[in-house]
From TrEMBL:
It is found in: Cytoplasm. This is Stress-activated protein kinase JNK. InterPro entries: Kinase-like_dom_sf, MAP_kinase_CS, MAPK, MAPK_JNK, Prot_kinase_dom, Ser/Thr_kinase_AS. Its cofactor is Mg(2+). Keywords: ATP-binding, Biological rhythms, Kinase, Magnesium, Nucleotide-binding, Phosphoprotein, Serine/threonine-protein kinase, Transferase. Residues 408-419 have a biased composition (Basic and acidic residues). SMART domains: S_TKc (SM00220). Its main location: cytoplasm. The keyword Metal-binding does not apply.
Amino acid sequence: QADEGMSNGKNKGANAPTGAATTGKDTANTEFYTVQVSDSVFTVLKRYQSLKPIGSGAQGMVCAAHDTVLGQHVAIKKLSRPFQNPTHAKRAYRELVLMRAVNHKNIIGLLNVFSPQSSYEDFSHVYLVMELMDASLCQVIQMDLDHERLSYLLYQLLCGIKHLHSAGIIHRDLKPSNIVVRSDCTLKILDFGLARTAGGSFMMTPYVVTRYYRAPEVILGMGYQEVVDIWSVGCIFGEMIRGQVLFPGNDHIDQWNKITEQLGTPSEDFINKLQPTVRNYVLNRPFQRGHPIHRLFPDSLFPADSESNGRLRSSQARDLLAKMLVVDPIGRITVDDALQHPYIKIWYDPSEVEGPGPKVDGGSIDEVDYSVEKWKEVIWTEVKLWDTVDTTVPNPVIPLSTAVPDQPAEKLEPEKAESNPDVPAATAQVVKAETEG
């Protein structure tokens, strides 16, 4: 474990005038302490106390903590090895920039960003402070929810996605563990390490999105657009109804097989859009008729029809599922149309849906391949920007996003998609065009 401490134990207050008087609150917001949390070491500002682990993943570990300055509970995420390689570094920068750029009630709020290192030369760790919620959607899936709660949770999820898409952001990694809720049924989307900006049609490595929630166009190495997120929402919605994962593929190929077993072999028009090697693989698979939606989601799986809120029905939920789980993205329902669907629109509030998010010039993030040292430089600039934010007040004013500095990029050799054992040989040559995870 690298040393996260500093010689003077300070960072954000390092530039304060010599001899300036400091209060307890000032000290809590400028000095650091180190604590062992599970199998990780956290070095955080003294304002954050009582750290407890609540989750971990490939992109970092998250702790709950008490913010003694604001008097509220928060979540602190320590980014995992942000400078291990260019892919990790780009992912860290993307998450920092996109989280700072979005502002919506259904997207987790970024409250603070800091590093315990006071100089660029020593810079090695990044911490994000966010709102703390009560549970992830993983726990909610195990509950018996009535139509009102199902519909309202889905509405909020679509509102958050609408905001992201309006800002030109495709999330790319929607799954139950990346969606959090409060006991009052408030829902928020989190984790933007894999999100990228929209514009045109992108190629994507199949292992970007957690396997169970991958859209067919991702699995097959096709271009993708915003509706890639809608497929993931359909998988999540169906899981909330069934109480189990819809397409639990054991590997990349099995994931495609699980989809076609339930939804059927796609149309000839769709298959003809595939790259030759992928098309041959799909055509060589046994033809699958699939099952009608009422067989996949019979009435017995749903709660009783609602007598309130315009009478929500299982048939409406099933119809929305059918429109989301469409293999060909051209025929898949958009987020705008989903928000107008009878199962959802009873909650429609223009102030929650239609407010456009800030446009993020993140295309430059996706298009450059910096060296680790160059990514470290721009991440340091992003972290130090938070020194200008007054994080001692609720709802601090956060500067809008900035683009990657317009400097010549050091081009790197792309990482090979074949290095991931989850990528089948049939699609490896297709997906290697997209090298960024």
